[in-house]
Design a protein that fits this description.
The chain is mostly helical. The chain contains 4 helices and no strands. It has a single domain, classed as Helix Hairpins (Orthogonal Bundle), CATH 1.10.287.1080. It binds magnesium ion (MG).
Length: 93
């Protein structure tokens, strides 16, 4: 799945402009949860144990980043390439 396809997938299931502030609050909440599982080093061990793991919280953060991009009509793939070009120049990588 490409970034563009991921945006499309989430846009088709969850696109509610009136909830932008709530999406942002959820993103911050999920970043906090990610911080906790990173600190505890909680990794997914089998396919059915994603709850409370780094894998789950990275998904949650990504979900709300993409949802917010969609509400603001941001093409994340395009943003990635534009910002990557700046970083390549800035950091020489
Ligand atoms: Mg979570």
């Amino acid at each position: 799945m490409t970034l563009k396809e991921l945006q499309e997938y989430i846009r088709n299931r969850d696109y509610r402009p009136e909830l932008e502030h709530a999406y942002f609050q959820k993103l911050i909440e999920e970043v906090g949860e990610l911080s906790e599982v990173l600190r505890k080093g909680k990794r997914m061990e089998t396919e059915d144990t994603i709850k409370g793991t780094i894998e789950e919280e990275l998904y949650d953060v990504l979900y709300y980043v993409v949802a917010l991009a969609n509400l603001n009509d941001v093409d994340l793939e395009k943003s990635f390439h534009l910002k990557e070009a700046i970083n390549q120049h800035k950091y020489g990588r």
